[in-house]
Specification:
mainly alpha; globular; single chain
Length: about 290
Amino acid sequence: MPDMNFFLHLVISISVVLMNGLPYGLILGRGKILHFGIMGTSLVSTYGIFLVLMNGGGYFLGFIAGLGIAILLALVFSWLAFRLDSDSFGILTIALHLALLAVVLNWIDLTGGAMGIAHIPRAPGLGDPRYFALVTSTVALIWGFFLWKIDRGPLGRRLTALAENPSHARSLGISREKVYTTVFVLSAVGSVLANLFYPQYIGLVHPSDLTFYFMIMYIMFIVAGMGGGIPGVALSCILLTILKEAIRFLPFPSGALGPLRLIVFGMILLVAVYLRREKLFPVPRTV
């Protein structure tokens, strides 16, 4: 039944976006940290998981490998964030993502290059799309609830303090290093969860799914939903993912749908930045 299949596809797509997008809401939305390297983390974790899997390691070992690589890269990003100003760090994270993508595209013997890794098998019990949708949505809900508690807890308040007045926050004993390291590691875990499910859903690991275009998508999710914290980002992820998938039903040639999505999302990002400019670029508090 096509309608049910599309509904299941929406549930899976939204769940995957939430796994990766919600922790990024803590980084960019709550903490105002210009970190544009989450797709770089997704890149290394995805290839770590499925290279191990396709070489006989199984999903458990693949998950452990992907998680270890993602956390290691998150620690590198957090180390850089301590030593660079905000703008320099943002530019460097973009450069690192592009460098990692270049390695993947050119190390053909290992990664398959531009062809990616095909014939990804699904984990046991996830062959039926209904079970796949149930598992991914359950993981997304548990993960979202966990991050919501963090957002409303001491870590969320410390992130807000560091974003609004870093020197005042440090004078109160808030450790920028500990806070940044924690949220970067949370983002790495979200990337591993998302990229554990999505490639096995489509049966393919392809570098085109891990380009900077998708980084812009996540920025848009955060900017559009940032006012409400984790709930706002979750709502933004859900609505914009539905819009992204619904555009394919418009009566346009297939070759025009990609550019049309870029135009629509570019307009949404422009409007969201204009309407939320005070939240995006807050005036530092003074005492």
